[in-house]
Design goal:
- The complex is a heterodimer of chains A (457) and B (188).
- Chain A has 457 residues and is mainly α.
- Among the domains of chain A are: 181 residues, no CATH class; 37 residues, no CATH class.
- Helix content of chain A is 31%, strand content 2%.
- Chain A contains 15 helices and two strands.
- Chain A has a two-stranded antiparallel ribbon.
- In chain B, strands 4-5-7-6 form a four-stranded antiparallel sheet, with helices on both faces. In chain B, strands 1-2-3 form a three-stranded antiparallel sheet, with no helix packed on it.
- In chain B, α2 crosses α3 and α2 packs parallel to α4.
- Chain B is built from six helices and seven strands.
- Chain B has one domain: Muramoyl-pentapeptide Carboxypeptidase, domain 2 (2-Layer Sandwich), CATH 3.30.1380.
- In chain B, 47% of the residues lie in helices and 21% in strands.
- In chain B, β2 and β3 form a beta hairpin.
- Chain B is of the alpha+beta class.
- Classes of the chains: A mainly alpha (457), B alpha+beta (188).
- Chains A and B meet through α14 and α15 of A and α3, β7 and α5 of B.
């Protein structure tokens, strides 16, 4: 019994979620998104969704809807009225009552709570009767006191408990995609399917004032579930606790865990692998270390053999062995000698620090090395000789061969590449002549320009 | 000695009664849209465009000579450019200025007629004007052209052919000017 009910509830929840995820394209003409509603009127001044689909078996358009359409499309009012005259009996906005009564609509509906509601227009009820998914208006006047989060939730059809302001009974539109509606008579507060027990109902109709009760429309399947719940005679105060209990049961069923294996938990750990205990603090760890606790030996390793190849000699004493000490040579006694210091010829060596590096005495890499230093010149600096004899030192990266055989590099003949000197200076003359040229007249400049290229005629 | 200034006053006269336009008192002129004239010249061909431009340039040179008189050979660069540029501006060929790159004389026109036909027309007008005013046979070579700036190099005909060849070889015009200043034998 419970499992069947839970399954049906789950299927219903999935259906509600699936319907909530669908795009809300079907809008009743009485519902307008984002429009600033005019005061005390059903006309929305600024609709963001100007179009609405109309189904063939929908009821005739309500006067309030016609007023809204006319206010939105004033330019096309004549043509639109002409079309409506074919579809619905013409009604004048001035003759329309501001809020038709619910009793005017003789519709088979599902009303979990149907108090006499003078604010619910017949147009909205007609839309509830039609397969159009009735979307609530998010304009501020009909949903005053609601936060944007609540509005979104209402639009998506997901019931989020609003702030407990209205003590009135709720009207929630879940789905109206079925033509056949079942009326379920139940006392308020009606048990809702996807709402928290203590949640307040939501007003989803556009024309309803603040204090008006709301209307909940459910599909036949949902209505049957509701009726089934009503047959069980669940008292409203108890329904809250039962709903919570059912929710908890559902959660328990959906998130059931396998039974814990007690025998497994009672099994002691293997003897060979004692689990190390983590010390709580450093002091505790030091205390354990000084107490001489036994080290855990992995079962695979076992104890180290005392004999054989892998046997290690454990030093029995702290003193070094004779092999470690080796032979000890005793030095002779130091002799006493006189030191004669000649301060006049002595050169005080500069005090060098340990980390100080000595730079080479050669000034620049490209400079020819000093003959004294040629012998100590690094092998990666070679000399290239040319016929003229003037040399230029070219530094190259040291190779392994040059590093290994310094003596061979000393035997190489110097090869010096001599740089060519500029043998002509017409460029300097050209610049000088161009700078000095200062024509006094236009004709002179023109003559100079005509002589350019040396081929003037 | 002061040079005469260019006086554009009453240069262009519109006779509404007779429906005639005169430029410096010379014969009836036609006010023709630039685009229509360039289309006509492009259809007429290069020779026709060159001849048409030279005729216009000869008239420009004649007016420049009339302004300077006998002092035209000693006219300064600024003075000659003022008069020549004024006459070109009256024709609607843009504003003229002179750049001197070493010894090279480069005329710069801003707002000159665009397109190949426009460049040919302006070159022919300037060549004709210099021929008439200074009795110099020059070759006007398009050195550089941008959206609104046109640089024309004034060289001899032999050098002009060489310059055209360099420019056809995608040699930058700065390099062309440098080559022109190179001594003989090192130009290329």
């Amino acid at each position: 019994m419970n499992t069947d009910r839970i399954q049906r509830l789950n299927s219903l929840l999935e259906r509600i979620k699936r319907n909530a995820a669908l795009p809300k394209q079907l809008l009743g003409k009485g519902f307008v998104f984002g429009g600033a509603r005019a005061a005390r009127s059903d006309v929305s001044a600024g609709p963001s969704v100007p179009s609405a689909m109309q189904v063939s078996h929908a009821r005739p358009i309500a006067p309030s809807t016609a007023v809204a359409a006319e206010s939105i499309f004033r330019a096309a009012a004549v043509a639109e009225n002409a079309v409506r005259s074919q579809q619905a009996p013409p009604t004048k906005p001035a003759q329309v009552p501001p809020s038709p009564s619910v009793s005017n609509a003789n519709l088979p509906q599902v009303h979990t709570q149907v108090p006499p509601s003078p604010s619910v227009s017949s147009a909205n009820l007609a839309q509830a009767h039609s397969p159009i998914v009735a979307m609530p208006s998010v304009s501020g006047t009909s949903l005053d006191g609601r936060k944007p989060r609540q509005r979104v939730a209402t639009m998506l059809g997901v019931a989020i408990p609003p702030a407990p302001k209205k003590p009135e009974a709720p009207i929630e539109e879940i789905e109206a995609d079925e033509v056949e509606l079942v009326q379920a008579a139940s006392s308020p507060p009606a048990p809702t399917l996807d709402r928290a027990p203590d949640s307040q109902p939501e007003l989803t109709l556009d024309n309803a004032p603040d204090s008006e009760p709301t209307l909940t429309e459910v599909s036949p399947m949902e209505a049957s579930l509701i009726n089934a719940g009503a047959e069980q005679r669940v008292e409203p105060p108890q329904s809250q606790t039962e709903t919570r209990k059912q929710d908890s049961d559902i959660d328990n069923l959906s998130w059931s865990e396998p039974p814990a294996e007690e025998a497994e938990s009672e099994q002691p750990p293997p003897d060979s692998s004692r689990r190390p205990r983590v010390a709580g603090s450093i002091d505790e760890a030091l205390a354990e270390a000084t107490a001489g606790t036994e080290l855990d030996i992995p079962p695979e390793s076992g104890k180290q053999p005392a004999e054989g190849v892998y046997a290690a000699s454990v030093p029995s004493a702290v003193l070094p062995t004779a092999e470690q000490l080796g032979e000890t040579l005793e030095l002779e006694e130091p002799t006493v000698a006189k030191l004669e210091l000649d301060l006049g010829h002595a050169k005080l060596a500069p005090v060098k620090e340990e980390l100080e590096l000595e730079l080479p005495q050669q000034g620049h890499v490209l400079e020819p090395p000093i003959p004294e230093q040629r012998a100590t010149q690094p092998s990666h600096i070679e000399e290239i000789a040319v016929e003229s004899g003037s040399g230029a030192t070219v530094a190259s990266a040291p190779s392994d061969d040059t590093l290994l055989s310094n003596s061979e590099s000393l035997q190489l003949q110097p090869v010096v590449t001599q740089r060519k000197t500029a043998d002509s200076a017409p460029a300097i003359e050209l610049l000088q002549s161009a700078r000095d040229f200062a024509p006094r007249s236009f004709v002179e400049l023109l003559e100079a320009s005509l002589k350019l290229g040396g081929k003037s005629e | 000695m002061t040079e005469p200034r260019f006086d554009p006053s009453s240069a262009l006269r519109l006779d509404f009664d007779q429906g005639q336009v005169t430029l410096r008192g010379q014969g009836p002129c036609l006010v023709v849209p630039k685009g229509a004239l360039l289309d006509l010249l492009s259809n007429a061909g290069d020779d026709a465009t060159r001849n048409f431009g030279q005729q216009l340039g000869v008239e420009v040179g004649r007016r420049v000579v009339d302004n300077f008189g006998s002092t035209i050979d000693t006219a300064s660069i600024e003075g000659f450019v003022e008069h020549l540029g004024g006459e070109l501006a009256l024709l609607g060929l843009g504003t003229l200025s002179v750049e001197r790159w070493g010894r090279a004389l480069v005329l710069v026109l801003n707002g000159a007629p665009a397109g190949e036909t426009g460049v040919s027309l302006v070159s022919a007008v300037i060549g004709g004007a210099l021929q008439r005013a200074l009795s110099r046979d020059t070759m006007v070579v398009e050195l550089m052209k941008s959206d609104s700036t046109l640089r024309l190099l004034l060289v001899s005909r032999a050098t002009g052919a060489e310059v055209k060849q360099w420019l056809a070889e995608q040699v930058p015009w700065g390099t062309v000017l440098t080559r022109l200043h190179a001594p003989q034998g090192n130009a290329s």
